[in-house]
Amino acid sequence: MIKRYKVVMCPKCKSIQTTEKKEALKCMGCRKQTQFKNAKTGFEMVKIYDSFDLPKHATLLCQKLRKDKSKSQYLNSPMQK
Ligand SMILES: [Zn+2]
After folding, report:
1. 81: CA distance to ligand 1 center in Å?
2. Are 18 and 59 in contact (CB under 8 A)?
């Protein structure tokens, strides 16, 4: 079951953030709104990493994921001279 505070990734700008919204994500990065699920197909439009009862826990996971993301981008980037 999905709890109140969700850790999600905006499909448009890939920014990881927390939200309390149930129907749609209003992205804090690009300001675009995306429905969590496509009403017709039921397809998940927004990736939900996890959900929590406490906003503090959601924020902690959010920070960890952001860190991991920047680390993997660093490792995957081609070597620069
Ligand atoms: Zn966005």
Report:
1. 31
2. yes
